[in-house]
Design goal:
five-stranded mixed β-sheet, globular, Cytochrome p450, three-stranded antiparallel β-sheet, 18 helices, alpha+beta
């Protein structure tokens, strides 16, 4: 990149971490990752230890291999999704003013069995049948956005289509005003663009998200419509009605996931299509292959990692991990694990094993995966049907933003008109 990224300072190496398991990697500011994320992830999967400790961002563990990520993702008793112990949470609550709360995106930051109870209402509203009912409106939106740029012969894909499409789908599902989409996107972007920081700062950011939705939440409670918020208000958790606090915690999670995930998959895919015109032609000739292409794209270009806290001292894949230490399951590297996928850095439409952990594994497998697949497949179908062969703009190379979510900052494409 033109400007050298400023690395975070090094945390001291714990006594129980051997030198062989130390790998200096800053998930936010690694120069090679920001320059070319897809290639750097292949390098990490091939050359970094399967489990390593990095001194960056306060010091934490990272798991990079497919089978280890899958195993840890399912083992919630050792790899807890809850960021605080019950004792820490109680101490935080005791220190808060009487009218304040701990904001906790649920159910993603809960462990079973509580997680199971809180996930059940979302299973209902994100069921495949409910998501398929949205396909026609998703297609209309995709067509509108593509037609808006078709006669130009070029566009910056992320700002023209990649961001507006999933964001508008999300806002319409929630019944949130479309005219505020830039404001909402900025809140989420600010939340994800910095390192982990102090708990107080994390809570401030989550509180900002909750407050920006509070009026809508209260209105849908008192004046229900057919949107997702209204339907959530009508569900229960273990037989009890939801509170405003429950709804805020639900919607913080959905706010982050809905405004900052699918757009990255779209950006990666369009970058790949633009760099591979022969693939475009193959899919135009046989659109029935688009679902297969979508799965291989999701494997090759994963974008979200999973954050865990070691619930107890353990030995995992040869690493001594202490209770309370942070462990990141690096799904984007796991999906290009050379022990799991032959020639993992190559997109292979006809690859037999396309199983991936892009949507995570275990009890926290992504609730929105059905919706994401509908959005992705619909967009690819319409772009390939409506645009001639498109290519990358050689004067405007792709750059990446990194952190908990990885994806292209911009993808400039051109086509003949």
């Amino acid at each position: 990149m033109s400007d050298t990224l400023t690395q975070t300072r090094l945390a001291p190496q714990p006594a129980h971490v051997p030198d062989a398991l130390v790998y200096d990697f800053d998930m936010y500011r690694d120069e090679a990752l920001n320059e070319n994320a897809p290639e750097r992830l292949v390098d990490i999967a091939a050359n970094a230890p399967p489990v390593f400790w990095t001194p960056r961002n306060g010091g934490h563990w990272m798991v990079t291999r497919f089978r280890l990520v899958t195993s840890a993702g399912r083992d919630w008793e050792h790899f807890s999704s809850e960021p605080f112990t019950p004792e820490e949470a109680e101490a935080m609550r005791a220190a808060l003013p009487p009218d304040e709360q701990i904001y906790l995106p649920v159910p993603i930051l809960l462990d079973p069995p509580v997680h199971t109870a809180f996930r059940k209402p979302l299973n209902l509203v994100f069921a495949p049948k409910a998501m398929m009912a949205m396909q026609d409106s998703i297609r209309r939106l995709a067509i509108e956005l593509i037609e808006n740029v078709k006669d130009q012969g070029h566009c910056e894909f992320m700002s023209a289509i990649g961001e507006p499409m999933p964001v508008q789908v999300f806002l319409e599902m929630f019944g949130l005003p479309l005219e505020r989409q830039d404001e909402f996107r900025k809140i989420v972007s600010d939340h994800l663009s910095e390192d982990f920081g102090e708990v107080a700062d994390q809570q401030r950011k989550l509180r900002d998200m909750a407050k920006v939705m509070e009026d809508t939440l209260l209105d849908r409670r008192d004046n229900p419509t057919g949107d997702l918020i209204s339907r959530l208000w009508q569900t229960t958790v273990d037989g009890r009605a939801l509170t405003l606090e429950d709804m805020q915690n639900y919607c913080i999670l959905l706010f982050i996931a809905g405004l900052d995930t699918v757009m990255n998959a779209m950006g990666y895919a369009v970058r790949h299509f633009a760099a591979n015109p022969e693939l475009q032609e193959e899919l135009r000739a046989n659109p029935a292959l688009i679902p297969e292409a979508t799965e291989e794209l999701l494997r090759r270009y994963s974008f979200v990692m999973s954050n865990r806290r070691a619930a107890s001292d353990m030995t995992f894949a040869g690493a001594e991990i202490k209770a309370g230490e942070r462990v990141l399951l690096y799904n984007p590297a796991a999906n290009v694990d050379p022990d799991e996928f032959p020639d993992p850095g190559t997109f292979d439409l006809h690859r037999e094993n396309k199983a991936h952990v892009t949507f995570a594994s275990g009890p926290h497998r992504c609730l929105g995966s059905h919706l994401a697949r509908i959005e992705l497949q619909t967009l690819y179908e319409e772009m390939l049907a409506r645009l001639p062969t498109f290519r990358l703009d050689p004067d405007k190379p792709v750059r990446y933003r990194c952190g908990p979510v990885i994806g292209p900052r911009s993808v400039h494409i051109r086509w003949d008109v």
